[in-house]
Model the fold of this input.
Amino acid sequence: MAKVTVTLDAELVVEVMVLAGVGSPQDAVELVVCDYIARGHRTEARAAAREEPRAERDVTPPEQHQA
Done:
């Protein structure tokens, strides 16, 4: 995999290291990025799950109630 070098504020990286509980700045930033991507995928999956019933409801004619 290709590597990228990014310059970040040291205080920001130290905060991430403390919150992630890791001793390496590289590992801390990688964990944050991986978590961000995973959260995005979970959000997409939930949004798709909510859209499916609505799409089915739009296609299926409503049931008629008899009184």
User: Anything to note?
Assistant: The helical segments are 10-20, 25-59. The longest helix spans residues 25-59. The mean pLDDT is 84. The chain has one domain: 11-57.
